[in-house]
Amino acid sequence: MFNSPVAAHTPSKRVNRDRPRPSSSSVASSTRSPRPGGTPSRSIRASPAPSTTPRRTIRPAKSNLATHDGNDAGEERSMLGAPPASLTVGSILKHDGFSAVTLLSTLPRQVNEALQKADPYIDAVKGQLDVSTGHALLVTASKTFVWTFSPQSSAPSQFTTCYTFASSPSSSSSPSSSNLSALPHAALVPRTGNRDPGLVLVSLDGHIRFWDSVAASLAGQDRSSQRVDIVLGASESVVALCRCEATTYVIATSASRLFRLSLVSAGGRLQPQLSPFNQTRGLFGRFFASAPTSAMPGFDGLIGLAVCPPVADQGYRDVYAFGHRMVQKWRLVDGGGERLMAEQDVATIIAEEIMPPSDAQTTHIDVNVLDGASRSDGSLSLLYSHASQPNKPLKYGIVTLQSTAAFALAGNTPLDYRSLRDPRPYSSPHLIIPNGADMAFAAFPDVLVTTLLSGEQFEDHIALKDSARNRFLGFGFEGADVEAADPSLAPLSCLSAQSGALLVEVSVAAAKNFQERLSHPAERQAALNDRLQSRLEQAVFFDVLDVANPLSFGISQAQAGQGDLAAASEHISTSIVTSSSVYLETFVDVRAHLADRGARLAGLIDALRSNDLVSRLPMRTRCKLLADAQLLAAVTDLWKLHNQQMAAASSSSPSSALSSAIEDVMSASLGSVGGFGSDAVRAFFKSHAQSIVAVFERLQQRLSAAPAQSSRIEVRAREIAAIDRVAVTAFQAAQRLRQSGVAANKYGVTVTQQQAAEQTQASAMMTTTGETWTCKASSLALLEALYFATEALIRDRKRELGSRVDRVDQDEYASDADEQGATPSSLQLELKTQLCELARYALLAYAERISFLRHRDAAGIAGEQHAHHGQTHLDKERSAVEARYRSALPRMIGPLASLAGRPDRAFQLAEQHGDYATLVALCLDESTGDPAQQVEHYLRKYGRAFAWDLYGSLVQRGEVRELLRLGEGKWGEMLREYLHAGDDEQEGIEQEEERDADEDEDETAQLASISWLHDISLNVYRSASTTLLRSAVRAPHHKHDADATSSALAERHLLLSLGKLAYVADLDEAAIATEKEQRAIERIDDALDLVAVHYRLREQLGTEEALPSSVDRLCVRGQEAYAAHLAKLGRRLVQTEDDQSEEACGPDTLGAEDLVDVLTLVSPPAGPDPLTALQVLVRTPAASAATVAQQRLPSARRLESARAVLRRALLFDDWAGRVVQTRGRTEEQQRDVVASTQWYAVAATLAQDEAEMARDLFDDAGGLEGALAAGGEAWASWLEEQACAEPRRDVLAARFQRGRQAGVDVSLYLNDVDKDVEEVQGLLLSGGDDAQETALWVREAAKRAWSAAVAGEASMQE
Hints:
Blueprint: E1 15-16, E2 56-57, E3 77-78, E4 91-95, E5 99-105, H1 109-117, E6 125-130, E7 135-140, E8 143-148, E9 160-166, E10 185-189, E11 198-202, E12 207-211, H2 221-224, E13 226-229, E14 238-245, E15 248-253, E16 258-266, E17 269-276, H3 282-290, E18 302-307, E19 316-323, E20 326-333, E21 338-345, H4 346-354, E22 368-374, E23 380-386, E24 394-403, E25 407-419, E26 430-432, E27 439-443, E28 447-452, E29 459-464, E30 472-476, E31 482-483, E32 489-496, E33 500-507, H5 508-519, H6 521-543, E34 551-552, H7 557-562, H8 565-577, H9 590-610, H10 619-648, H11 657-670, H12 680-687, H13 692-704, H14 713-739, H15 742-745, H16 753-758, H17 777-801, H18 824-858, H19 873-898, H20 903-912, H21 916-924, H22 931-942, H23 944-956, H24 960-966, H25 972-979, H26 983-986, H27 999-1017, H28 1021-1034, H29 1048-1065, H30 1069-1072, H31 1075-1103, H32 1106-1116, H33 1120-1134, H34 1152-1161, H35 1170-1178, H36 1195-1212, H37 1215-1219, H38 1227-1235, H39 1238-1257, H40 1264-1270, H41 1273-1284, H42 1289-1294, H43 1306-1325, H44 1329-1357
Parallel strand pairs: 1-31, 2-4
Antiparallel strand pairs: 3-9, 4-5, 5-33, 6-7, 7-8, 8-9, 10-11, 11-12, 12-13, 14-15, 15-16, 16-17, 18-19, 19-20, 20-21, 22-23, 23-24, 24-25, 26-27, 27-28, 28-29, 29-34, 30-32, 32-33
């Protein structure tokens, strides 16, 4: 131990000594902090001593320190050296709820020069502060300096005396001094009255020098010193010097020998007397008397001493001597004499305490005692270290030992602090326990670790910033024999190499209160949060703003993880903005006030960045901190604007739009403006900046109440321009901070406004963003209202004042300048500039608000839920804002080019917000530049994103030629990609033959009509063929306008023909002969066959009376729905382009089901054509099997249509009047009659080619394969079952749900189908003789058709 100062006299009980302390630093017993100006809210001392030094917290506004000139008083007198910039004596370097650090005094010039010349890794230096005498010591290899470090003598314009002594030479060859300069041990001798203290220097080789007064150095130190020598053995050296009483010292040697040094008064002077301890030296002494130190590494001698307080009324005190493993307890009797009370290897006890129980048998812990200190109860505390692994940071702890005959462990306090061994000389850690109480300091070269030795662990670190050059050299404190004046305070004075003397005061009460809160689970997290906030406040208010502060305020990741870092950061930021933090200084000048707050906000983010904590903050908090910084920047610029307006305002109307709005807000907050003193505006800027949104609301109300358009337009112009200036100034300052790189580089807010507007879900690094003032609904409403009001004003002024108002260079209205010197033309120019800025900030506010709503919704904090069509209340708000944003983009960007004459700003905003549609419109506008060059530029810059909007715009404008021209060069593939963008969506989709001709389908058809032309130009024939064939399928459903120049039927025919030609053009001679390609071509031919059917029907129905007679026939049969349906289909087939009827739309194509109806319901002379109807169904495959050239029909509806063909073929023939009446016919004639029936023809057709058609159409019906295998009777019976099958009404109804069939009365149509089924069932299943005979002939016809089909196949095979 370096030094353990005790009382200056020999007391019989503990002394309660009030020593002078500066009042510059005090710690609140709670978590409150000092008020502005350095005044503490509560002091940890009951009654601090007065001080002549004013107290001050480090602040940039007080960075100048007055220097002092003077003459040296001889060689040994020197003026205090100039302290570091921004530091004055009494400056508070740290102040939180637990500790305070104050600059007590600076170093004398000679001491400062000696330290600056010393190499901290080579030159040995040590020191101490003696609080009982108020003097400091610094020992170097050549000189020892003594000076007064009390703050009274360090005040400005005062001198101090620095006494210099030659350090004792050392001839010791002990290992401890072989590599480094060995420094003597030094101690001051307290003297009574106002006399200067004496000095004792003991060299390592035993030479003792004593000066009765340090002032004797001025008269010649060699003559004034008294000498005594210690006779040391070989390799023995002095290792410790400790003041036991005012005139009694104990000296320890490396050989475990102890000596008493007494200063006896003789002849009015103190004289040194040396005597060894007269008791046996114990194990230390016995071992070292017979063996050199290096013989037993486990017993390396004494390293320090600790003196206990005197035992009341017993006449003795105890002294502890300790080494790295062993501890001795000696009792010193007042009249003389010493006795060894105990001696023990305590390293083993400590190792057993800290060793985990599971590793007790296998792990060996090498414990090393570093220092010790006595407690007020006579116990001993030891600072120890141990290493879990070699070359790893050491772990530390403090144990307390009680002793009688042996030492017993009374407590162990492990420390969280870790460090490697410091290679610098005299850098061993020290243990300091002021007043022997519960608060202990583990003093490392660059860190003070404070901890409580009782209760739950409490640990705090006070670290030096520049640990390479600056370190703690010595300490001063009251020992265990001095009773603390205030037990709740633990003071420690520190001597640092670069910063002079520091006073550290730790609140024991606050530490114990923190311990108590940690012990309660309900308060534990809140306590940790408060502690983290306090750490961060110290970094903000004491470190970042002043580099001269020697203390470091680093926050480790572990410390940051213990509390709510986001809440702490937001709280500090808010307290700075609202000026509610007790650390802030009060300024009269508003500009200085705002500058200080802005600098503090910058300090907050700098503190977070320097400790690598920004990444731990959620994006919401980062945005909040950035928004607060933007708010300070905004109100700072608004204050400048207010000053300018006040300077320019006339005495008759000093108020402005801004000041009036602020006064209204401040009046509403307290009820009257007078509550803020004489100037509510200043009060707003100082402490109510967070109410800026309320100011915006007042401004919007003022805008709404602006003079009507019927009033003089210039009055309205000045009013709107004034409000514009406020909004533009505020948002311009906020955006300036974002664009300067601060947002990305400091705050980590890297998401651009465009990304924020487009993203739908925050990524891992993006949590919920807060609703900052820049994206509040009121802010957005003001910007939007101002934009449209300014736009309307510009148009009105131009209409009323003429186009000359836009000519600034030739202002014809100069004589109309207002009192501020603004002319109509200059005001018009300002309004146009404001319009550009308002558009910029309004769109940014839109984007930010959308981002906020999306993130808050994604985080599940949407608040009250109002379900409406599956949407929450917040969903609807977000959707509404997004819709307004999309609408505002072209409305706000376009006029910047056309009205404000700033196409550059329009282009910039369109790019920034990704509004490519508006960007396309600007490019195609010849007034903004060369369209071709601009289109080429943005195609290169944005590629697909821009091209899609460009192509869509050209398509909508009908500029197909320009569109195809763009595809001629390097953008050909991009255009092709756009034109075929919907092709993949069409693949595999089941399409009904009737589809809605909605806008999307019209656009698809329009793109298809362009894409195949583009493909042909690129020689991509297969793709052109696919597009043509798909368009042919779609064509009939998109030519329903009266302006059609060709019928849908003709268009389909043309498209199919071109599609077939393009398909074949892509094949060579070998490929076209393959079966695969032949089948593909056959599918196209099938589609062409259906077109041919349309042409034939159109010709028949248009030239004959078949349609009217068929309709009449159906009506007679009671099937009016059939009749109406057939009439409608007939008109669609035969109408012409010049038909002016209501439903006329040109010749149309029918779907497969409609064709079947026409072909099977028409009566003579054309007659039904069921065979063609079957061919139509065969050429209209099920949706899953259809190709691009074929119409698609759901398989269930296809089956119902095939059954309808069977029923109608059966019902068309006159079975009772013609087939059954066989009288007068030969067998051959009857066979011909049967073979002439449609039923026979249908049955034979289905059975041909091994029933290929039957398998195709009736595969889903069931029973077909069995009937085909049995043939004859089974085949005929299966056909009758299909004709009599009950129809699926839901399947039939689906046919009439879309397209042109939607107008059909489905229920009536299904009733007519039911009538067909009933009639077929009556024909085949009734029990009468006639019916049975008819059923026999029906079956006979089917059997004969089967036989004929089988015979025909046999003959074909032969």
